[in-house]
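step: validate -> pass
step: tokenize input -> pass
step: predict -> running
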Amino acid sequence: MLGFFKRDKNKIAKDGEDHTVDSMDLLGEKAETTGKEVKTKLHFPPNVEIGQEERYYYQFLNNELPLLKENQISLSGIEVHSAEDGTVSVKAFLRNSLPKGVRIAEPITLLLLGPDEDVLARQEFNLTGLGELPAESSTPWVYVFNAKNVRVKEIPQTDWKLAFELKKAKGPHTLDLEESWEKSLADTDKEKLEQLVKTIKPPKPGEVNFMGIQSRLDDAGALHVTLLIRNGSEKNVKLEQLPLNVEDASGEVVAKGAFKMEALEIKANTSKPWTFIFPKELVLKEDADLSKWKAYVPQG
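step: predict -> pass
step: emit ->
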């Protein structure tokens, strides 16, 4: 793995910068701090075959690394290489200054940053293959970014940085109004929606669901259904086509339809109201009892 790309044997220096975070921010590992500085010892992952010359190379680079404070995790860039297929390989030390070994069990998102901190590539990595990072250790590894995750045509060979993307603390679930709704809704109606979103239980992490707000049959026999589209994930969700069934108080399906939308976007950790209109020909029951109803995406 470490010999994935060749290095210039006449050059014994690392090209990348360092990115260091507190172990609590990355791993949730809380530990007491005495204020001492840590010199990390070179460590190779299990099942990695490496020659003596390479060992000397990594040992030399490791000796040149700056000291870390206690309880930190750091990425120290060594080399970067762009392949003809568009993939970008980054060789870096992963350093652990905790007084105990740690494992990165959950997938983690890494960023390749340019000289101005602009994001050159972004990808989620599974680092379980590294095994345990021993206490006060420095582990060389190669991180391969797939071509689809690389955002630029040329990767600079100096002044770059491999960095952790730390998860932002999740704030409260909030209301997100489409611009047309923002302009047309009365302030009192906006306040009611905001209060509703605040008081109801938010969707589970990663879940997208629908909550009925209002339904009515108009004079032409069309059924108007207003739903709160609730996004509990950390990513924005775009809806382009949505099949919907509506059941009335008797549990009967009273309307069926498939709605095409111009990429309706529901931002991460927000709820957005939207009205779906079933024309009369899609209404299956004219005398529907809408005193109690629900709308859902049919399975299959």
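step: describe -> The first helix runs from residue 23 to 27.
step: cleanup -> pass
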